[in-house]
Design goal:
Structural class: alpha+beta
Largest sheet: 4 strands, antiparallel
Number of strands: 15
Oligomer: single chain
Shape: globular
Low-confidence stretches: 187-193
Strand content: 35-45%
Order of helices and strands: EEHHHEEEEHEEEEEEEEE
Distance between the termini: 16 Å
Mean pLDDT: 86
């Protein structure tokens, strides 16, 4: 089976954590699946949360539903390799004024915003070409065509897609080796625990809860723990893939 492989990068990025909305807005440390699907939806011209909100307001319904990009692309299998030492991308607090008038009820209508941005972020992205939507996305990226401009979280952060290529992915159903991508700590039949770690030679372990799904009623994030490490991990009855000299997991 083939996989689309490209580098996704930018000068800055901001993938907002919804838990905190006062004083400082914080970002996730790496790009997550929902943000990736949003980028893919922009490339293919699918509607997002704004269109869904407008439709909901017009019909005045409260039924369970998703934005168009998520409905069409949620089944895509993606894999992410951070291009940063030990998986940690530098962050910096940025302070700026939002003076559009409706941003704040304060005198003068000026809101001082503080956001935590990722600096010089870059990832290697793989998309498994196992369905029509994946093939459609692959064609658009290879031809460098997009309907809407892709961003890294917000329209302040332009996304750059480069080094596009197709690669063959060989399936591995069990094994023990270093997994070169971010991978779920616990996902179905994959159980990663202390017994599976080979401590010999391990120099780093990055772990973070990242969004993997949307809740059907509220469209809030559903989180899952992900790991990125140079330690060996064991897996059984769970698919991993060998692409050239790398072993990665899709989710």
């Amino acid at each position: 089976m083939n996989a689309l492989h490209f580098t996704l990068s930018g000068k800055t990025a901001f993938f907002k954590k919804p838990e905190v909305n006062t004083y400082v807005y914080f970002t996730y440390g790496n790009i997550h699946k929902i943000a990736l699907l949003g980028i893919f939806g922009a490339i293919l011209g699918y509607g997002g949360h704004t269109q869904k909100f407008a439709q909901t307001k017009k019909t005045k319904t409260t039924e369970e539903s998703f934005p168009e990009f998520y409905e069409k692309l949620s089944s895509l299998k993606v894999s992410v390799i951070p291009r940063a030492e030990n998986g940690f991308i530098r962050k910096k607090i940025q302070t700026f004024n939002n003076s559009v008038g409706y941003a704040s009820g304060e005198q003068g209508g000026n809101l001082i915003v503080k956001e935590q941005w990722l600096e010089e972020p870059a990832w290697e992205i793989y998309v498994l070409l196992d369905c029509d939507e994946a093939e459609k996305l692959c064609k658009a990226i290879q031809e460098r065509k997009c309907v809407y401009i892709p961003y890294l979280g917000k329209n302040d952060h332009f996304a750059d897609i480069s080094r596009i290529k197709l690669e063959e992915a060989g399936e591995l159903r069990c094994g023990q080796a270093r997994i070169d991508s971010l991978f779920p700590k616990e996902s179905g039949k994959l159980q990663i625990n202390d017994d599976f770690w080979s401590e010999e030679g391990m120099t780093f372990k990055y772990e973070e809860k990242l969004p993997v799904k949307l809740d059907a009623l509220t469209n809030n994030y559903i989180l899952q723990s992900f790991i990125y490490t140079d330690a060996a991990a064991a897996w059984e009855n769970q698919k991993a893939y060998r692409i050239n000299d790398r072993i990665i997991m899709f989710y």
